Amino acid sequence: MDIYSAIKNESIRAGILRSWNNLHNAVEQNLERFPFLRDFAKDVKEAKLEIAKNYEYWIDKAAKALEDAGATVYFAENAEKARKIAGEIVGSGKIVVKAKSMVSEEIHLREYLQQLGNEVWETDLGELIIQLANDKPMHIVIPALHYSEQQVAEILKKIGIEGRNAEEMAKGVRVFMREKFKNADVGISGCNAFSVENARVFLIENEGNIRLSTSLPKTYIALISIDKILPDDILALKSVIVQAAFFGTFPPGYINVNRPVAGQEMHAIFIDNGRSSTEFVEQLSCVRCGRCQLECPIFQLSGNIWGGSVYGGPMGMGWSAITGEMTENAFLSCLCSKCKHVCPMYIDIPEIIRKIRIKIGKG
């Protein structure tokens, strides 16, 4: 789907506005009730940008902490290397359960593992719908917001799930996924924040699927983009709290804190993919709450189609550029600066978009 088709797609706009109606006031209420959230955001931004000055040092420190705790650690300079490392760990003929991870989308991991002959399942309900529909996530946190209940019912029939309403369909998905969790050989997750202090992977969720994906399989792979590295547990906890609160859910449904445990192989892949060399350094402080997307007037018309092949919306302009994809969709931004004002990190996204336009113009 191109940007012009997306604008004409009524279900995209309806889904985004429905989500905006549900979450906009929730964020405002969170900030009014808990003013310390802005202080948390400031602390996290300062820490992230300080670490970005010397990623090499912090990656080495993080790797040592994980190895001391019993994990096997890898470093991937780019998406291809990250896929290859994960593929060598998984092998072929395995059942793989995946937690929702935009970094895995960034490196196209699910498709790669399927090509190797593995059965790979997204375990987040929204991501499962996207997988079955052969679509792309329409929002960084709510991937299937553009599908109606009726459309989801048709999509889930592909795996034999039928239901008269959302509750029945969700129950059918739980039963289906339960068997995948029980028989899974490998579990894969992303990372919302990583604490160097105690080698801990922090993950937030609201369905319980991440906990099952990362704890039941004998082999667990954590995909850790280097922008998620933080010095200690307190800052990592602040980061996931800010992410949840500025999305609209506070306190978070679940906060998982993972590290190597007896009886399970843990593999941690630190992924650079343009982060250590980007000129758009401020974007690296992003916690990916997705608030800028829902609040953006252009995104409200076109969804995640406005952006690169993976990352869309205001924050998607910067992340696409960092990961090697300068998109001319940057010229469709109205530069109204709403994204900057709703961002917990006050990232100057309009200025990033201006710089992208200049670079594209210069060829």
From TrEMBL:
Keyword Metal-binding: yes
Gene3D superfamilies, per database record: Alpha-helical ferredoxin, NagB/RpiA/CoA transferase-like
Keyword set includes Iron-sulfur: yes
GO annotation terms (biological process): lactate metabolic process
InterPro entries tied to this protein: 4Fe4S_Fe-S-bd, 4Fe4S_Fe_S_CS, FTHF_cligase-like_sf, Helical_ferredxn, LUD_dom, LutB/LldF, NagB/RpiA_transferase-like
Keyword entries, A-Z: 4Fe-4S, Electron transport, Iron, Iron-sulfur, Metal-binding, Repeat, Transport
Domain (4Fe-4S ferredoxin-type) ranges: 277-304
UniProt GO molecular function: 4 iron, 4 sulfur cluster binding; oxidoreductase activity
Domain of life: Archaea
PANTHER family: LACTATE UTILIZATION PROTEIN B
Protein's UniProt name: Putative conserved protein containing a ferredoxin-like domain
Organism from which the protein derives: Archaeoglobus sulfaticallidus PM70-1
